[in-house]
User: What shape does this take?
Amino acid sequence: MKRDNVEIFEDSNVITLYDDDENPVEFYEIACVELDDKFYGLLQPVEPMEGLGEDEAIIFEIKEGEGEEDMFLPIGDEKILENVFSEYVKAVSDMENCDCCHCGDCDDEDCDDDCDCNGHDGCKDGECSCEHHHNKKK
Assistant: This one.
């Protein structure tokens, strides 16, 4: 599901990163946030991790690496972490407030008046799961 600059993954990919001792650590990629022309990944460990709650995530900056592998870089700037997490929370909140298909990408002025989901890019061919047709602007 995507909302402007945030993509929340329904089917989490498993990503393997390596700790300081080169031990593999598996994470679920739960979301990607674009902020200030940079990309950030929200990752939750597959196995419980010391110092990290079950519902907590770690945020990494994602940079394009050589070949097909992306690089996940730690972030030391608390302001960036707060901004990325804030964007993620807004997207989750929008998604929870969308009544028909939980797309999180609603826009009142593009929607059929009879539909509670308010029109969004998640609709296939202008029709969402509640079967209303949307008048999307081209």
Remarks:
- The mean pLDDT is 77.
- The helical segments are 78-97.
- The CA atoms of residues 27 and 126 lie 35 Å apart.
